[in-house]
Every structure is written in C-alpha cells, then in structure tokens.
Amino acid sequence: MTEPGDGDAQDRALLAAHLAGEPHAFDDLLGRHRQRMWAVALRTLGDPEDASDAVQDASLSAYRAAAGFRGDARVTTWLHRIVVNACLDRARRQAVRPTVPMPERPPADPRDVLAERETQVLVQLALAALPEEQRAAIVLVDLTGFSVEDAAAILDIPPGTVKSRCFRARARLAVALGHLRNPESPEPVPPAADLEGGTT
Amino acid sequence: MTEHPDDHVASHGDSHLDLEAMADALAAAEDGAALPEHLRSCAACATRLEALRAALGAVASDLAELPAVPPVPASLQRSVVPTPSPGATTVLPARPVASLDEARARRTRLVLAAGGLAAAAVVVVGGGLLLSHNATDTHGAATNAAGVESPRVQDSGTDYRSPAALQAALPGLLSPPTPAPGKTVPSPLHGLVAATPDPLARLRTPAGLQGCLASLTDPADRSTPLALDYATYKGAPALVVVLPSAKPSKLDIWVVGAGCTQLESDLLLYVKADRPTK
C-alpha cells in the first residue's frame, strides 16, 4: 500500500540504515511517527502515564523486532500495530483509569467551560467503556485519522470488520452520551449497561 | 460489501434488531448493501434505525470536540537505542517532531536550485520542482533571487569509501570553488559521460532528482539539500545528498544509488555528521 510521497520510502531507508548500523537512524524513524503513536496510545488508554508506558514498550519492541520487519506493510503500519498491541496488552492487564486533559483553549464563559468539560468527561468515560477491539478501531479511524484500510492493516483484520467495529462503537457512544433517546420507539434502545460485556 | 465477522450478534431472524445489528446495517448500507429484510418490513425498527443514523452525527460532533492530544512527553523523546560504550559514537536524542506551523513555515521557503552535468537549476516550490537552465548557478551558487540558500552541486566523481571520508569532504561539499563568471567548473566525469552511459543520468533530470529527494525527506517537511555530489560510493555510482539535521550542529548525509526513486531510495549509506564550523 505504498503511495508516492507518503514517506514510506524514507521510513524504509531509515530502517535499512538502522539495520546497517547507523546509530541515529532508528531514533530518526521513531521521531517521524512519535506524535501519532502517542496520540493513538493516549486515545486508546485514556491515561497519559499508561499511554507513555505503552509507547515506550512499543518503541523498544520495534527496536528489537526491526530485523524481522518483512516489508510487506508500510513502516508506519508496522509501528502502529506494535503500539496498538502494546495498548491492548496494557488495557487487558489493568483497569483503565481515564483522565481528561485540560482543553488547550479555554472558552471565555465559565459556564461554557463547565459544559464543555462535562461533555469531554462523558465522552472519555464512554470511550473507556467500549470493548477494547471497538475502542481500538474508533481511535484509529475517528480520533487519529487513519483510513479504514490503514486501520485494517494495523489491526490485521479485514476493512469490513474495522467498519463494523467503528459503527458499533459509535452506536454504543450514542447511547452512552444520550443521543439515542427516542420516546416514540416501541422498544427503547438497550441502555449502555445492557451492552457491557457484549460481544464485539 | 462490508464483512461482519462478528455477525453472531448481528442477526436475529424475525425479532427486532438490536443496536449492534442496526449499526452493522448502517455500515453495510454505507458500502451500498441493501438493508436487512426486517428493516424493510418493520416500521418500528426502521424508525429506530433513522434515530441511530441521526445520533451518529451527534457522536461525531462530540468526538471532534475532545481536547487536542497534548505534546509528546519529554520521557518519550529520549532515545530507545542503547547507549554505546564510551568512545563510540554518541547517541543523539530523538529528532523532535516538527509542528505543523513549523512545517508550513519551512515549505514557504523551499527554493532549491540543483543541477549536474546538464548545468540545470532545479527549483523546489511548495514540494514541486521547476526546471530552469542556469549554468552559472551550477557550482557554488549561494543564494537565488529570493535570497534563499541553494545547494552546492558537484560532479566530483570522488569514490567515497566510508562515513569518515564523507565527514572529511563536507567542508568542500558545502563550499566548492566558485567559477569565474561565464565559466563552468570542469567535471572529472565529463570525458566519461561522452564515452559511456552515465548511470546517474536520471538523477540529473529535474523529475528524477525530485523523486529521489522526495524519498529522503518527510512530505510535511521537505528540507532543502545543502549540497549534492554526483560521485561513487565504494565504487558504485552514487549521489551524495547533504540535508540539514534537526540539531543545528549536525547534518544528515544520504548516499543513494542510481536506482533512487520516490518509492525506493536505493540507500547506500545514511550517516549523521558534524556540521563543519566556518
């Protein structure tokens, strides 16, 4: 899935240079992707400390596994796959404690601040309550801008499955965030609590 | 057609569809698939489906309003590469990620003049290459009309054998002799070019050079090369590209082979070198 100008050629060159013994090449490679790796980890885990640990684990894993990179995926896909796996491993090992970073641009009206923060807290909590696989899909596609195809390559699942997981995640969020209250519905949509523990 | 490997909860026969089955229906519909039969015959489920469709728009708005991801913490900026033993090459801290603003600012000043045996000047503007013929710019051209520094281009024909040799050659690569007005610096390869095909000929064309440079630079941060040298590396035809490094005291030296394209750099050597002091 290499496309002209997407930077993969330089990534491969840096990886080759690293394997050839150039001491700075791997750090240069990570430097090109670190911001997005960090974003994926933070959005997936919610907690900055956990996210930082996950990115650090993933970076070391990638460093150790560099020689085994087969080249059948883009380097960025390979790196982010390692990050997602590190995040999911970490999420499985411990309870996630979502935190909400302060908004960078505070609105002028304090009431707006409260309303905005309340929404952000609710969204963060709703994201944290998603099944891991759905959360990973929606973080990649909706929150860090990967295409469905790239997310599929990262998660190593078919694009259709990514799409399905994204839609299911959005539907769960719609319930959790109160967007899906339909009083005229003969059968109310199952509340979020009923969805917990459901299959993905 | 959207695949649904998690289909065991997506189908419920004649009963009303649950939330995930409706989500799957919307996902499939986005791919042009027909809605499940039940949705076409059950008004209640069809109503709920439309409610869900509208709710997904509100969810998208909520997600868009999440606070921006904070900068990468300093702890992650440290190198993951094990520190070598004393006396070996120093491990540099990882290159910081350029901000969008920084990248934009750099793009605005991307003007590159390059050439080769054809004495062609290549100008990069906003990531694109334009060709202009200007023999006097070929060697030692310091700045162009916009006042932006241009790369020094040489056809030294030097056979570089090691990173140390490149480091030693850097002062000369960055400050080649400037020819007298109206003259060009004679290239040691001139005679060879007439007699044998030039393996680096493609990299002397604007398109060839542009593609090769694109494989060496980040699309969001197309740094202007400081110097180009058409040479050989361990006997193989090679183009030496000297690029600025994130650390001002360093330079990135890429040595690529004749096969360097936008998709494949044909890398022979990458080394970070000390920037010569003036």
Could you give a quick summary of the protein structure above?
Chain A has 200 residues and is mainly alpha-helical. Chain A has helices at residues 8-19, 25-45, 48-65, 75-93, 110-129, 132-143, 148-155, 159-176, 192-195.
Question: How are the SSEs ordered, and which strands pair?
Answer:
The complex is a heterodimer of chains A (200) and B (278).
Chain A: H1 8-19, H2 25-45, H3 48-65, H4 75-93, H5 110-129, H6 132-143, H7 148-155, H8 159-176, H9 192-195
Helix pairs in contact in A: 1-2, 2-3, 2-4, 3-4, 4-7, 5-8, 6-7, 6-8, 7-8
Chain B: H1 19-30, H2 37-41, H3 43-64, H4 100-108, E1 120-125, E2 128-133, E3 152-154, E4 159-160, H5 163-174, H6 190-195, H7 206-216, E5 227-233, E6 236-244, E7 250-257, E8 267-274
Parallel strand pairs in B: 3-5, 4-5
Antiparallel strand pairs in B: 1-2, 5-6, 6-7, 7-8
Fold and architecture overview:
The complex is a heterodimer of chains A (200) and B (278). By secondary structure, chain A is mainly alpha-helical. Chain A has helices at 8-19, 25-45, 48-65, 75-93, 110-129, 132-143, 148-155, 159-176, 192-195. In chain A, helix 2 crosses helix 4 (75-93), helix 5 (110-129) packs across helix 8 and helix 6 (132-143) packs across helix 8. The longest helix of chain A is centred in the N-terminal third of the chain and has 21 residues, at 25-45. The radius of gyration of chain A is 19 Å and the shape is elongated. Chain A starts with 7 loop residues before the first helix and ends in a 5-residue tail after the last helix. Chain B has helices at 19-30, 37-41, 43-64, 100-108, 163-174, 190-195, 206-216; strands at 120-125, 128-133, 152-154, 159-160, 227-233, 236-244, 250-257, 267-274. Chain B folds into 2 domains: 12-64, no CATH class; 101-274, no CATH class. In chain B, the strands form 2 sheets. In chain B, strands 3, 4, 5, 6, 7 and 8 form a 6-stranded mixed beta sheet that branches. Chain B is elongated, with a radius of gyration of 28 Å. Chain B has 7 helices and 8 strands, in the order ααααββββαααββββ. At the A-B interface, helix 1, helix 2, helix 3, helix 5 and helix 6 of A face helix 1, helix 3, helix 7 and strand 8 of B.
